[in-house]
Specification:
Blueprint (H helix, E strand, L loop, with lengths): L1 E4 L7 E7 L12 E3 L7 H15 L8 H7 L1
Antiparallel strand pairs: 1-2, 2-3
C-alpha cells in the first residue's frame, strides 16, 4: 500500500507498506514490513521503489559443480 499526501503548506508525505502474498508454513497470517517514507519527493520515491525491489527479490542458491557440469 502506498500513501501519498500532497499538501501546499509543507513538503507532504510519501510512505509505503508491504505484505507477503501468502503465510509461511505453519503460520496463519501474512507478514509485512514498513518501507522507507518521508517528504513527497522523487528521492523518497526512489527509496521506496528500491525497497519494493529488494523485498521482491528471491535469493538463488549458488551453482553446484554438478549443475556446472550439466551445462557443458
Amino acid at each position: 500500500r502506498i500513501t501519498a499526501l500532497d499538501r501546499s503548506k509543507d513538503e507532504g508525505y510519501l510512505g509505503c507498506t508491504v505484505s507477503n502474498r501468502k503465510p509461511r508454513a505453519g503460520e496463519d497470517w501474512t507478514r509485512g514490513n514498513d518501507l522507507p517514507d518521508g517528504e513527497f519527493t522523487k528521492e523518497t520515491w526512489e527509496h521506496i521503489k528500491n525497497g519494493i525491489l529488494a523485498y521482491e527479490l528471491i535469493k538463488l542458491a549458488p551453482k553446484t559443480e554438478a549443475m556446472a557440469d550439466e551445462e557443458k
